[in-house]
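Q: Here's a chain of 76 amino acids. Please give me its 3D structure as tokens.
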Amino acid sequence: MDKFAEHSAVIIIILIFLIQQRIFITPEQLEKKHREIMEDIEEKFVSIDSFRDLKAQFSEVKEKIDKMYDLLIDLR
């Protein structure tokens, strides 16, 4: 306990420095940053369900184009 008393000034200065430099964050700050990241992700990326729906639609369009191509070949 005496060693803590001897070095208490140094410990307090180090703690103040760490707080000023924002080395430690609060849970509120972490939650705010998390929300910002999630909003950025929603703007820039598509959900997996939307991607699968779009992929299925492309597959249907490809099948229809293939059928039209086959019909055109058969007509010649």
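Q: Can you summarize the key feature?
A: Helices lie at 2-6, 8-20, 27-44, 48-75.
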